[in-house]
Amino acid sequence: MSDKIKVAAVQTDPKLRQNRNNLNGILSAASRAAEQGARLIAFPECSLTGYIFTSREEALPYAETIPGPSTAELTPLCKQLDIHVIFGLLEKEGDRLFNALALVGPQGVIGGYRKNHLPYLGIDRFVDKGDRPFQVYRTPIANIGMHICYDILFPESARIMALLGADIVVLSTNFPQGRGEILNCVARARAIENRVHLVLSDRVGEERGFAFAGLSNIVEATGEVLGLANPDKEENVYGEVSLAAARQKHRVFLPGEWEIDTMADRRPELYGVITQTGTDAN
User: Fold this and answer.
1) Which of 76, 171, 196, 242 is the most buried (most CB within 10 A)?
2) Annotated catalytic, 115?
């Protein structure tokens, strides 16, 4: 495993209920990113299906399984170009429906993620809550964690993945216009507080009168923004990150006088209230 890896956040404008056209766009954009040397390529939330559905019944015909037809089409490209791709879709399992991500590599589907925190917005009004814990996938290029949009406002999400050994945390979003700067501030905070690299892929465009923020970006584990997209056009942004930097939680600024360790300095015995349900912690 090489220490340095080039990553890409792909900012797209998927069309509602046009899975075939959207998948073609994912395949093309992944190929372009690979030509620029990217090994990990992340797409937005619901980049296969679109997001502003008006009912569960409307959305279900556009949902797929993981593995499924779209991951099967993506696998040969990943093998040919030696890349790993994360894209958003609606996942079905029996009579259940999830807002999900799929992670595909040269050997096929590596894993998936089902959105755990659901806002009252778009398809999230009608899907089932994620039923799996946060997970980190150990791949030949990096240890990768995934979450979706609203999840980032719950700091426990990224912290859990950091504790599980993530080098890179991917956030695929459909963040609304006017909120992009807030999202990016939070993304930088999550990278800094967990000492992980964060790849944020948001979408652009408008869907049923709802506009999206764009501003996809890549944040290095120190909080430095390595690449930032425009708010209003499809494009790829790139950054090269060091796995060693993400794994070095103990930082020495002045030996014996100024040292910090993001993980070892935690006080879990004081954090019990975090796991309590409801809004009254008293």
Assistant:
1) 171
2) yes
pTM for the model: 0.96
Confidence label for 181 from pLDDT (cuts 50, 70 and 90): confident
Q: Would you list the DSSP string of the chain?
A: --SEEEEEEEE----TT-HHHHHHHHHHHHHHHHHTT-SEEE--TTTTT-S--S-HHHHGGG-B-SSSHHHHHHHHHHHHHT-EEEEEEEEEETTEEEEEEEEEETTEEEEEEE--S--SSGGGGTSPPP-S---EEE-SS-EEEEEEGGGGGSTHHHHHHHHTT-SEEEEE--PBTT-HHHHHHHHHHHHHHHT-EEEEE---SEETTEEB----EEE-TTS-EEEE--SSS-EEEEEEEEHHHHH--EEEEETTTEEEETTTT--GGG-GGGG--SS---
Is residue 236 scored above 60 in pLDDT?
yes
Q: Is 46 a catalytic residue?
A: no
CATH of the domain at 56: 3.60.110.10
In a domain, 37, yes or no: yes
Our answer to whether residue 45 is catalytic in this structure is: yes
Does residue 39 sit within a domain? yes
| Residue of 92, 149, 220, 234 with catalytic role | 149
Task: Read off the pLDDT of residues 111-136 as tens digits, 9 standing for 90 and up.
Answer: 999 999 999 999 999 999 999 999 99
Catalytic residue among 115, 207, 220, 234: 115
Which one from 6, 45, 64, 78 is the annotated catalytic residue? Answer: 45
Domain count within the chain: 1
